[in-house]
Amino acid sequence: MAKFRLAYYGFVPHQMFLETCAKDPALEVIHIPLEASTAEAVQTLSSCHGYYVMAARDELPKPLHVHAELLGKLPNLLMAASYGAGYDPLDPVACTEAGVALVNQAGGNAEGVAEHAVGMMLACLKRMPESHAAMIAGKAQNRATMMGWELRNRTVGLVGCGHVGTRVAEICRLAFGCRVIAADPYVDAATLKARGVEKVDLDTLFAEADVVSIHCPLTPQTRGLIGAAAFAKMKKGVIFVTTARGSIHDEAALLDALNSGQVATAGLDVWEVEPPPTDHPLLHHRAVIASQHTAGVTNESRANITKIAALAFSDIAAGRMPPRIVNPEVKPKFAARYAAAFGTQLKEG
């Protein structure tokens, strides 16, 4: 049987990907260097069955994003796998139309992201960003002006309760005795209850949460979800944290909410443009703690997500349907294309 050829552009998130792939003789891994031209990269990808795709949209050149235009140039492509749980540079609809399975690594970095989110909650509640800014400005005098709050027994509202949200809920409940509520149209009330979480709608979450933490993917439905109207519905003095994806929250609306005091403090790991420009007003706001989309950038998380991705490529090379397919409706067309390419039928699992 022919080898399953897969390519990646520039770099992999962790050496674990290459080490895991190297153990599978059915895989042929091709590196496309950063200095390669778009034409050279597309030519290489056109001969490949798999494409391992950077998940951060601003790291990957736009012509190499997996959209209809690129897919039209890749006749052999069967599977595109995102580096992480997010898949901003990949279009699920275009992949489905092309018969390409879009795979992500959901859950692989859940611990790293969840810890980061809770850490930001604590930093905001204790007003660490404001205290830091005051000391730098030489205005650190009366400590009572920096009086904060404790996380214990507060209501934490999760917009999205998948792998990361579930772990955030567990930490907040067990370590801090929090009431956790979640708005997630894809998870039923019974499932959330089993996780110790109350299912609510968004308006109820905004009205009742002391801390609002974002854990949903960026989709057409969630783009701009947290805008001026959403911030206005939140409790005055709410803590806002996001470790999900930029563009889910409106940055200008958040700035207005911070300046008005509607939002007390914010923890931001994701941005509309990454990294944000150095003069971005949210970066310089005294009530914001910021990081550069690094919530899942831990040694453990990156080793885990890259191993999961490599094993997904091994699954398809061995004739098994890979897990974590984001566009499951593609399966019949994807299986037919696989059979045509390799002369064998894909097996579930």
UniProtKB/TrEMBL annotation:
Pfam families hit by this protein: 2-Hacid_dh, 2-Hacid_dh_C
CDD domains: PGDH_4
Record's keyword terms, sorted: Oxidoreductase
Domain of life the protein comes from: Bacteria
UniProt key word Disulfide bond: no
Domain spans labelled D-isomer specific 2-hydroxyacid dehydrogenase NAD-binding: 118-295
Domain D-isomer specific 2-hydroxyacid dehydrogenase catalytic residue range list: 18-327
The keyword Endoplasmic reticulum belongs to this UniProt entry's keyword annotation: no
Entries under InterPro entries matching the protein: D-isomer_2_OHA_DH_cat_dom, D-isomer_DH_CS, D-isomer_DH_NAD-bd, NAD(P)-bd_dom_sf
Protein family membership: Belongs to the D-isomer specific 2-hydroxyacid dehydrogenase family.
Protein name as it appears in the record: Hydroxyacid dehydrogenase
Organism annotation: Roseococcus pinisoli
